[in-house]
Amino acid sequence: MSASAALSLLHQLTSLQDLTVVFGGIYLHEFSANLSFDWRLVTRIHTRSTLASVAKSVYLACRILMLIYSVCVVVITFPGHPRCHALLKLFTVTGWFSVLCSSLLMSIRVGAVWQWDKRVTIGLTLVWLATFASTIYSMSEIDSSYEAPILSCAFTGVHRGLIPAATLIISDCTILTLLLLGLQKRWKNARQYYTWNLLWTQGLLYLLLAMVLELPTILLAMDIDSIMNTMMVTPAAIILTIAASRMYRSLHALAQGDSTASDHFTNGTTHDAHFVARQIELQDMHKT
Questions:
Q1: Has residue 3 been placed in a domain?
Q2: Residue 257: pLDDT band by 50, 70, 90 thresholds?
Q3: Predicted confidence (pLDDT) per residue in 238-255, tens digit
Q4: 3-class DSSP state of 155
């Protein structure tokens, strides 16, 4: 590597470091601020349905995977880590799987809205499996090597993330379109209920976020350079995970009878919330 190329790469790495520190810090704050909710969720003894248990497990996996990703993405951009391959694989696996868990959380919500209609369930399964397969392909193609002149890791094959990025956009748009259609078709007479409005608003917000954050990743096709490619992926992964986990917490709070805490998608954390159990009137909504 020439001196000019090394200097250019060093400048790009500095920009990447700044970006990853900011977004890594945002997620670490988000994670720590809601630890009390996670602890209550884990230690609850009340009987839960199978679906609720699955959703809880996916939510916790999403949180933990993104925590590992946030730490890795900060560590890997700073100099002095010759074991680049292992660190990058951990970084890639945790990042993509946290995003997949975010989509799966939304898919569970869609399935519940459609009351697990066979056609919708099969469609969701196929879409998610396609995203999963493309993600595995991307993980196998992305690699990293240690560059001695800059004492840091250099990425290769990051542009291969175009395929899972494009698949993820299609997947999220499909999932959220089904959510909105399900609310209109299955629960059209329930608009007066707070639950309906919460699901509708969150669906629109996540769809908007997915389009704004995921569409720029199509630039991966241009293969500008590995640093720029990484800079496009990291904010999208962290923000989508934060959004999906906040939506889960707000809906969970509503299901436990705390309508104030259910607004925390925009208001903040739930560590001051006190849950009072009550039944959500979804069945009554469907009958109206």
A1: no
A2: low
A3: 999 999 999 999 888 887
A4: strand
Q: Alpha-carbon distance 74 to 28, whole Å?
A: 11
Distance CA(102)–CA(156), nearest Å, equals: 26
Q: What is the rounded CA–CA span in Å between residue 129 and residue 132? A: 5
Q: Is the dihedral of CA 217, 215, 22, 6 positive or negative?
A: positive
Provide the domain limits for residue 238.
Answer: 21-245
Alpha carbon dihedral 46, 255, 94, 50, in 10-degree steps, equals 50
Task: Give the lowest-confidence range in 13-22, 39-48, 139-148, 257-266.
Answer: 257-266
Please indicate, yes or no, if residue 166 is contained in any of the structural domains: yes
CATH number, domain at 236?
A: 1.20.1070.10
Cβ atoms of 110 and 51 closer than 8 Å: no
Q: Are 227 and 15 in contact (CB under 8 A)?
A: yes
Single out the residue of 126, 265, 244, 108 nearest to residue 179, CA to CA: 108
278 vs 259: CA distance, rounded Å: 11
Domains: count for the chain = 1
Percent of the chain whose pLDDT exceeds 90:
28
* pTM of the shown model: 0.81
Average pLDDT over residues 259-265: 45
| Residue closest to 285 by CA, chosen among 195, 179, 201 | 195
- Residue 129 burial (10 A CB sphere; 0-12, 13-18, 19+): exposed
Counting other chains too, the contacts that 265-272 makes at CB distance below 8 Å and 24 or more residues apart are 265/202, 265/205, 268/33, 269/33, 269/34, 269/37, 270/34, 270/36, 270/37, 271/33, 271/34, 271/35, 271/36, 271/37
Answer whether 203's CB lies under 8 Å from 180's CB. Answer: yes
Residue 259 lies in a domain: no
pLDDT at 114: 92
Is 1 among the domain residues? no
Q: Per the structure block, which two tokens stand in for 271?
A: 């560590």
Asked if 233 and 161 touch (Cβ cutoff 8 Å), the reply is yes
